[in-house]
Specification:
four-stranded mixed sheet; globular; 4 helices; single chain
Length: 171
């Protein structure tokens, strides 16, 4: 189970507003990373999505945890600086995320249209979803609960069902 994840955004607040609509979430400040916003789902699952400014990079750092030092602000762990703020902003990204939503497909498409971002309903042959391209560069796949699409996704994403379609990796 994925509990939370972070996504880069040119405009974290704008993207957070959209994600909050999609997952029925609430936006919170996330002072650990300067300029970032966290969206926490109201469904009780514990799911959270952090929107970080896309000029922030994270690295492993060095050092050991020190329980005597407390976290303050956007410095990362106090014993180990792990964040860099750079002058670059990548255009397209190599990862994507799939989330589920209680919103109907037409409402999801309307959210994309209102933002002026590419947003299409598509069929993945096993289940249907909406592709919402956040800021026209990051793919958020939205699996609607309506018409049983989330149930179809959940039935498909077990090792035997996926292996029957894609095959297993030989060790």
């Amino acid at each position: 189970m994925i509990c939370h994840l972070s996504l880069p955004a040119k405009d974290p607040l704008r993207v957070a507003r959209v994600i909050a609509k999609v997952i029925d979430g609430e936006m919170m400040n996330f002072p650990v990373v300067k300029g970032s916003i966290m969206v926490v789902s109201r469904d009780g699952s514990g799911t959270a999505i952090e929107l970080w400014p896309d000029n922030v990079t994270q690295h492993p750092g060095v050092g050991e945890p020190d329980p005597e030092k407390k976290h303050h602000g956007d410095t990362g762990h106090p014993w180990d600086f792990q964040l860099d703020y750079e002058d670059r902003q990548p255009e397209n990204l190599t990862v994507h995320v799939a989330v589920s939503s209680k919103l109907p497909v037409e409402e999801l498409l309307q959210i994309g249209r209102e933002e002026g971002w590419r947003c299409i309903a598509t069929d993945r042959y096993v289940f249907k979803l909406v592709e919402l391209w956040l800021e026209d560069r990051f793919l958020l796949e939205i699996i609607p609960e309506e018409a049983g699409e989330l149930a179809k996704y959940q039935q498909f994403t077990n090792p035997d069902a996926v292996a029957a379609v894609f095959g297993r990796v030989a060790h």
